């Protein structure tokens, strides 16, 4: 072979199944993921993904390497999107539904930025490249056939295929970009996008900033509870670290799980996710069973995590 049987094999994928990769590798225990966040020379976060094959020695070596190169590593399990991107999918999806319901690109981005986020979902899409998300959806068969029983909007698909607005690298995405303004990195309101969206809107609603924040971020938080419930991530603060270091979540709000638990209140999160699930039926609005149980038990998610850790230490 090209490398020795004890050489650690790490993939930087954000979408490929690491269990599947490990399944065809000699000595699969050496297989793992290191998901760097772009731009990797700036963003400190690395999701270190173990799969069902990964050995403890591989986890230890990758964790040490992450520290050695000056990154903040979080150990997570293997699932579609891992932790960060799995949670961001309902966030960006719901943001697009808000456009259909009368909000503007600037309304949605502005609401979460006012909350303290570094950037909103549409600026994030333009920076990452709207074509990347389109290709992922196409590979999943969503572009041609929708997302099964899931409510689906084709707005981000049309943005790419009809208008070629793939983001900052093309000088146009959800926003326009002028090389003379902020070196082409400052989003400017697009007349083309606004005229197009005006024809796509099913109605016009006067959205409050609180509505926009809750519609955008509560699905993300709910997905975080599902990730904890499934054991993909051990503790809520690990999710908080991922979002602070990888997605520009404001440190002073403590991460999405802390924000929901300590600042919003889990009762309100459950109330609104239940309400929106009844209205829209999307899976990302279906309340996590962990969230339901915590509210019923009048318990916070950090208290739950600490109790679980104590129980494990006694084994």
Automatic annotation (TrEMBL):
GO terms for molecular function: (3S)-3-hydroxyacyl-CoA dehydrogenase (NAD+) activity; isomerase activity; lyase activity; NAD+ binding. GO terms for biological process: fatty acid beta-oxidation. Gene3D superfamilies: 1.10.1040.50, NAD(P)-binding Rossmann-like Domain (3.40.50.720). Keywords: Isomerase, Lyase, Multifunctional enzyme, Oxidoreductase. InterPro entries: 3-OHacyl-CoA_DH_CS (IPR006180), 3-OHacyl-CoA_DH_NAD-bd (IPR006176), 3HC_DH_C (IPR006108), 6-PGluconate_DH-like_C_sf (IPR008927), NAD(P)-bd_dom_sf (IPR036291). GO terms for cellular component: peroxisome. It holds the Pfam family 3HCDH. The keyword Lyase applies. Residues 81-177, 213-298 form the 3-hydroxyacyl-CoA dehydrogenase C-terminal domain. Residues 2-78 form the 3-hydroxyacyl-CoA dehydrogenase NAD binding domain. This is Peroxisomal enoyl-CoA hydratase/L-3-hydroxyacyl-CoA dehydrogenase. It comes from Triparma retinervis.
